């Protein structure tokens, strides 16, 4: 399935969906894994932030992994037709607790690659019926398919931040 299926649902989705292309979701996950090669550019800045009080590159990579895991859980919950309310999470609490700057850049990228591969595999197991099941995702009621596009859009959002705010520091 691809993003144009979401238009028929007349939903209001997270802004990350808006920045995605209309590729089939499976192809988009493959692209998002390939896009991880862009992270290598930022190796010299691994423990650097672009401004006081902002996350380092390592913090951002761990944030993307952590967030994707939370989104995976929401996706499997919704796909299995569980209508439980899922609490949010506070990224500002998670980031320092993750201690990303005590880890190597390589370990963070390797972990994120595995998370991405796991996401791709998880979504490949969902049939069209499961992809259209929905539940409350923070403040939106969205189908599993929209969670998939939120995942790739979230990654793209952070790759854009790296390019705009960190690349000038190289």
Automatic annotation (TrEMBL):
What Gene3D superfamilies is this protein classified in? dinb family like domain
Q: What is this protein called?
A: Damage-inducible protein DinB
- Write one Pfam family the protein is assigned to: DinB_2
Domain DinB-like residues, every copy: 46-161
- What InterPro entries does the record tag this protein with? DinB-like, DinB/YfiT-like
> Superkingdom, according to UniProt?
Bacteria
């Amino acid at each position: 399935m691809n993003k144009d299926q979401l238009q028929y649902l007349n939903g209001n989705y997270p802004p990350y969906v808006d920045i995605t292309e209309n590729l089939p979701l499976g192809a988009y996950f493959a692209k998002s894994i390939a896009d991880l090669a862009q992270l290598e550019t930022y190796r010299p800045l691994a423990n650097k932030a672009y401004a006081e009080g902002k996350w380092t590159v390592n913090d951002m990579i761990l944030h993307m992994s952590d967030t994707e895991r939370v989104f995976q859980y929401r996706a499997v919950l919704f796909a299995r037709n569980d209508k439980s309310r899922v609490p949010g999470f506070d990224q500002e609490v998670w980031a320092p607790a993750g201690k990303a700057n005590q880890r190597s850049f390589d370990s963070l990228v390797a972990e994120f690659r595995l998370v991405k591969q796991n996401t791709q595999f998880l979504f490949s197991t969902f049939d069209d019926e499961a992809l259209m099941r929905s539940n409350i995702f923070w403040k939106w009621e969205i189908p599993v398919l929209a969670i998939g596009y939120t995942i790739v859009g979230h990654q793209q959002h952070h790759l854009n931040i790296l390019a705009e705010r960190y690349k000038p520091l190289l």
